[in-house]
Write a structure and sequence with these properties.
Layout lengths: L24 H14 L4 H12 L3 E4 L4 H13 L4 E5 L6 H14 L4 E3 L5 H7 L4 H4 L1 H17 L4 E3 L16 E4 L4 E4 L7 H11 L49
Helix pairs in contact: 2-3, 3-8
Amino acid sequence: MAESRSPLPASPAADRPALPVEPAPEFAAELAEASRRLETAEPEAIIGWAVERFGSRLTMATAFGPEGCLILHWLAAIAPETFVFNLETGYQFKETHELRDRIRDRYGLTVVYELPETTVEEYEQQHGGPLYRSAPTRCCGDRKIAVIRRVLSRFDAWMSGIRRDQSADRAAAPIVGWDAKFGVVKISPLANWTKSKVWDRILHDDVPYNPLHDKGYVSIGCWPCTRPINAGEDERAGRWSGTAKTECGLHLRD
């Protein structure tokens, strides 16, 4: 069962003014240069740069995928004070909740559950049943996108675990770039890694991961919209199966 939403850090660093809605040309150039320079850097160095550049105004969102768990593995050593959160829609797998506890026990990191304004029961009552069946994009918008907008309004930059080889929508993801959708900087330390490289490091460093991955679940989100994939299928084929939808909207540019 999801915990109540914890408060965000009370006060951002006083010497770090909030970023504008659109980046100034000089700042956009700084981000482009940083992304170019960090393209060949190790993920730990990218995380270190993000921590040094944004300090307490840096956050991380994780759904506890393998990439997110690997970033948490490094973050625990580099900047364990970083605010990390999970978008708890109310529909996550039991194994995902249990993984959060294992991460806490292993690294001392408590990933905060950020919740929608309504419980699952209230939400389904309002809409006459589960929207994940009839309007999955609306469901994602209400229970994920609206929540992350609220969280990111308190920060200047966020880290994600996306990889370019995951999908066409992510193929052009920079290491560092401006996230116009949320008005913050987005850092993707594993953008140029492959799935096999991620798993090699997870197994080498004994990083905790979701046991559903051992049962054919490659990309794991909410339980009603996730299934194991078959041999030869794209790694995101198990998300919103039977529809054209492949993204919840967090990493789409529009």
